[in-house]
User: Which sequence fits this backbone?
């Protein structure tokens, strides 16, 4: 079975708003960059196109019909995954593994600034009969989860705040990041308490941007580039849609997704083998919870490691050197692609002043946000 | 350095669109049973899984752990404990609420799962994980077979 490689990437954004480009132009610009990077002509060289988008976030019914032209995919095989970009990666990986397809294009974007009522759309994802009639800002769910996570793991509010300080600082070195900043722990701790114990600055702010990638089979990849980044394993899992029965302490979906990806990638000791991890940090505490689910440390240990600087960019286990969603901005269904982009750039040694020396194995992780329990994991390497 | 960058897209030339989308959500067999008991008898029901030997709250027609069909309805009482909670200070538009709202997951002794609801008749500083609470129902003539037939849960003595 052929190995699968990422052979081209293109990114536009991420910025708080990208007023000059429509969503189609945004996708076009990112696609042009990716095709140039890979050295492919979308009208001739691509077998399948995959976009990742969700109608309500886009403001269209049947949004998947609105994607071929700006990707060079008119009259070509194309489908849309209603999920995070990393779920699209899993699909691209499987297509190439079948042996029937050699070149696959993967796209996900966020035009969050077009959506004036994002929180209403998220609230609409709650159970219509059991939860929605209670009203309220849907992120109360995150406040409840953080509270139980802290209760069970003894992680501290300072450790959660440290995630924000670290990630927004990392973002200062990332030209694709919207919200780089040098902050103090006190600034985070003193920000408004929105959903106790979750504070305003611990919540990622939406941003606009688009990431397009070109994937190829082994034989095509080796012709196209001398810097392929190999997809060694993917895994995905959904726990339950029911807030009443889900686990409020651990991310069990991420744990199972990670086990699935590690098995394929033959990773036995993630803490030792993974050189950098791009982990969902939509809310600061989620980075800690997800690190534990990903077996990057023991349960309850992530906060301490963050405090000790182990997860800093120059630490022993860098987590979110890109700046994460707290620093890059929350890219809706492109959130996982923000993570994947950083891993690809790091493994190609193209991460500029964020570069982690000798990085060989990188992990990208996505979670689909409130109120979902879907986790997706990809393990990548610059060694076949 | 400003920490909050400008994020108002309305300053850009644009076309404003909205979507009218109204739905009804039928309750189904388990939901019908659950809300009828709340409305008519002020009781909170679960469904017993014979295979897992747990009572799932709110009741469902099937067990999400083992996929068995559930047909036995069980009264789990109106008293439970707070599994986790939060205090929301902003509304869905991001505006500060006049009074903070406490949301919680209340678990019942006999049940797996529980109910997401509000906590009332207490101060935000006094709420704790593990606290004992009980459901406060609206008077029966005001009940509409809705989750809001329960006004909130309040701490028990
Ligand atoms: Zn069962």
Assistant:
């Amino acid at each position: 079975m052929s190995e699968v490689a990422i052979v081209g990437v293109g990114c536009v954004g991420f910025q708080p708003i990208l007023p000059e480009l429509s969503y189609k132009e945004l996708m076009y610009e990112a696609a042009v960059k990716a095709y140039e990077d890979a050295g492919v002509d979308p009208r001739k060289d691509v077998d399948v196109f995959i976009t990742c988008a969700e109608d309500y976030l886009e403001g269209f019914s049947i949004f998947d019909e609105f994607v071929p032209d700006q990707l060079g995919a008119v009259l070509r095989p194309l489908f849309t995954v209603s999920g995070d970009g990393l779920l699209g990666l899993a699909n691209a990986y499987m297509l190439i593994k079948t042996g029937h397809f050699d070149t696959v294009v993967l796209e996900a974007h966020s035009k969050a600034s077009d959506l004036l009522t994002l929180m209403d759309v998220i609230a609409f994802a709650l159970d219509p009969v059991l939860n929605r009639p209670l009203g309220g800002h849907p992120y109360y769910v995150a406040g409840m989860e953080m509270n139980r996570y802290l209760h069970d793991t003894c992680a501290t509010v300072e450790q959660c705040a440290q995630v924000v300080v670290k990630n927004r600082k990392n973002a200062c070195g990332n030209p694709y990041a919207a919200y780089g900043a040098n902050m103090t722990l006190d600034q985070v701790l003193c920000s408004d308490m929105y959903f106790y114990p979750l504070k305003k600055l611990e919540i990622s702010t939406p941003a606009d941007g688009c990431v397009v990638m070109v994937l190829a089979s082994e034989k095509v990849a080796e012709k196209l580039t001398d810097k392929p980044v190999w997809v060694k394993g993917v895994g995905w899992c959904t726990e339950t849609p029911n807030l009443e029965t889900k686990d409020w302490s651990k991310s069990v979906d991420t744990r199972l997704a990670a086990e699935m990806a590690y098995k394929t990638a033959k990773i036995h000791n993630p803490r030792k083998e993974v050189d950098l991890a791009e982990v969902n940090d939509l809310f600061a505490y989620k980075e800690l919870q997800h690190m534990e689910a990903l077996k990057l440390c023991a349960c309850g240990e992530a906060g301490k490691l963050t405090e000790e600087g182990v997860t800093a960019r120059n630490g022993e286990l860098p987590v979110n050197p890109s700046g994460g969603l707290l620093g890059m901005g929350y890219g809706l269904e492109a959130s996982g692609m923000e993570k994947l982009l950083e891993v690809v750039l790091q493994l190609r040694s193209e991460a500029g002043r964020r570069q982690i020396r000798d990085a060989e194995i990188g992990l990208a992780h996505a979670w689909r946000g409130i109120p979902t329990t879907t986790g997706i994991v990809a393990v990548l390497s610059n060694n076949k | 350095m400003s920490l909050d960058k400008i994020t108002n897209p309305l300053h850009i030339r644009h076309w404003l669109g909205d979507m009218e989308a109204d739905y009804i959500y039928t309750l189904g067999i388990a939901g019908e049973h659950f809300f009828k008991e709340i409305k008519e008898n002020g009781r909170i029901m679960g469904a017993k899984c014979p295979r897992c030997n747990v009572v799932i709250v709110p009741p469902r027609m099937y067990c999400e752990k083992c996929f068995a069909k559930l047909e036995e309805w069980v009264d789990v009482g109106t008293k439970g404990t707070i599994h986790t909670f939060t205090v929301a200070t902003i509304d869905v538009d991001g505006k500060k609420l006049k009074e903070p709202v406490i949301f919680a997951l209340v678990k019942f002794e006999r049940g797996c799962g529980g109910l997401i609801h509000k906590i009332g008749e207490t101060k935000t500083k006094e709420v704790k994980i593990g606290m004992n609470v009980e459901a406060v129902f609206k008077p029966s003539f005001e009940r509409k077979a809705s989750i809001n037939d329960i006004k909130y849960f309040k701490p028990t003595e």
Q: What stands out?
A: The pocket of zinc ion is lined by residues B 49, 51-52, 63, 65-66, 68 (CB under 6 Å). The two ends of chain B are 51 Å apart (CA to CA). The beta strands of chain B are 45-49, 54-57, 72-75, 79-90, 96-108, 111-113, 115-118, 132-137, 150-155. The mean pLDDT of chain B is 93.
